[in-house]
Amino acid sequence: MKKLFLPFAILVATISITGCDENEHEQQPPQAVIENSSEVTSIAQGESVTLGANVISSLETTIEWMVNGQPVAGAIGKTFEFTGNQTGEHVITLNVTNKDGQVSDQTTITVYYQIDFEASSVLPYVATANSGSGVFDGGYIDEVSGLKMPASVNSEWGSWSGIAISQYNDMATEGYANQLSAYYKDGSSGFGGYDGSKTFTVSYSGQISFEDDATEGAFYHFWVTNSTYAALSMKNGDAFSKKFELGDWFKLIITAEDKDGNPTGTSVEFYLADFRTATSPGILTEWAQVDLTPLGSHVHTVKFDLQSSDTGEWGMNTPAYFCFDNIAFLK
Fold first, then answer.
1. Is residue 223 within a helix (H) or strand (E), and if so which, with residue range?
2. What would the mean pLDDT of 60-78 be, rounded to a whole number?
3. Interstrand relation of 282-283 and 315-316 (parallel, antiparallel or unpaired)
4. What is the distance between the alpha carbons of residues 248 and 244, in angstroms, rounded to a whole number?
């Protein structure tokens, strides 16, 4: 009996083990992540960003892209170009499926509204002379967003304050007669605006706010540079201001208020000229982006203040002008 039982037991065990190997299947669901090689997470309305699907699977897969929970027709490849036609936050979802399962990944792209001052509707507000007499009295209101940039002109004295829209970029003429020039000339277009554009703004004791008293929004960034009036005053000195040297500086300070006039967020500071150390960059001669997100998400009014190391009995001696362009925000 013992001689017959042992081989039989081995045979049964062998059959049992062999049967498990034939019937078991190791599940191999896909792995996938969204790749954003440009690292762009916010774009202006109308701009695009290209995303990629990094997929790992030994089995055949299908790909689906979705925007805000809705499948995008024809978006079934490993690259997806998202165009920001509508402002706001948009959730992009990647679904990758094989016969063993599905995996998803998500990223968020913010589409902001941007005023670049190049629209034809802006042209009637562009300054007609490179001084206070050429500034459009009353200022400019963006017809889409309702963001207003007021300006006040004293025709008797030929003076002004606020925000002027300009296309001047005379980088050579010093003094008060050249108030509305950007200290910049694009190497290709020859224009003075950001990214080779023609139109920009000049601020002199200016601020911006929404025309509707109840409207608030989040400001993302804008681009700034020096006016020629301020830049040449700092570079060469004049009858009222010193030539900048080691230790000097010229700074833009940006603050915000909500619809009730209460301060929001934290202030933003940016140096338009920096001679504080021997290795400081000096006078800004290019367009530079300034992050405005610290101002908060409930902003109604944005105020601009300028401070300088060159001050006297009557206040700041450096001309209190700077230029800005391409302001980005959501309301």
1. strand 218-226
2. 97
3. unpaired
4. 6
Within 119-202, residue ranges assigned H as helices are none
Q: Please give the CATH topology (third level) of the domain spanning 31-112.
A: Immunoglobulin-like (2.60.40)
Q: Which residues contact 191 (CB under 8 A, 6 or more apart)?
A: 167, 169, 185, 197, 198
Which pTM does this prediction carry?
A: 0.86
Buried b (16+ CB within 10 A) or exposed e, 172-201: eebeeebbbbbbbebeeeebbbbeebbbbb
Helix (H) or strand (E) holding 8: helix 2-23
CATH number for the domain running over 116-330: 2.60.120.1350
Per-residue pLDDT, averaged over 20-48, amounts to 86
Q: How confident is the model at residue 277 (pLDDT cuts 50, 70, 90)?
A: very high
Q: Cα–Cα–Cα angle for 280, 283, 287, nearest 5°?
A: 110
Rounded to 5 degrees, what are φ and ψ at 177?
A: -75, -5
What is the number of other CB atoms lying within 10 angstroms of the CB of residue 94?
Answer: 25
Residues 176 and 227 sit within 8 Å (Cβ to Cβ): no
**Of 127, 135, 214, which is closest to residue 166 (Cα–Cα)?**
127
Residues of the chain with CATH 2.60.40.10: 31-112
